[in-house]
Write a structure and sequence with these properties.
One of its GO terms (molecular function) is GTPase activity. This is ADP-ribosylation factor, putative. Belongs to the small GTPase superfamily. Arf family. The structure is a single chain. The protein is an alpha/beta fold. It is 23% helix and 26% strand. The chain has 3 helices and 5 strands, in the order βββαβαβα. The strands form 2 sheets. The protein has a 3-stranded parallel β-sheet with strand order 3-4-5, sandwiched between helices. The longest helix is centred in the last third of the chain and has 13 residues.
């Protein structure tokens, strides 16, 4: 289920304390994303791997975010979600559609995930935690 609005949660994972802001992706909410950029160490950008028609907008929003000064040091983890669903694009296909290979000034990685089964979530969170610890 997509996020409607904004949610905040504190999580301790791999000896890293995360303050997680879950920001809804609806067009009416995107202008408010900037309010949460300050002191942001990592972005977990979740895309629906079955919503091929929305990947162009996701690409534009991601690349727009990465131009923001407050996010210059943030690492990027893309979660290609819904990998358990029929017709889902692979993480490699999502990477191509999002033009991740063009991101040169941020450390990034992409993970095949399923919020339903939990597949890939641990690997993605571990990578983010390790990136933050290594700074």
């Amino acid at each position: 289920m997509p996020t409607i609005g904004f949610n905040v949660e504190s999580i301790d994972y791999e000896n890293v304390h995360f303050k997680v802001w879950d920001l809804g992706g609806q067009s009416s909410l995107r202008p408010y994303w900037k309010c949460y950029y300050e002191k942001c160490s990592a972005i977990i950008f979740v895309v629906d791997s079955t919503a091929i028609d929305r990947l162009s907008v996701a690409k534009d929003e991601l690349h727009s975010m990465l131009k923001e000064q407050e996010l210059k040091d943030a690492v990027i983890a893309v979660f290609a979600n819904k990998q358990d669903m029929e017709g889902a694009l692979s993480s490699a296909q999502i990477s191509d559609k999002l033009l991740l290979h063009t991101i040169k000034d941020h450390t990034w990685n992409i993970f095949s995930t399923s919020a339903i089964t939990g597949s890939g979530l641990d690997a993605g969170m571990k990578w983010v935690a390790n990136q933050i610890k290594s700074k």
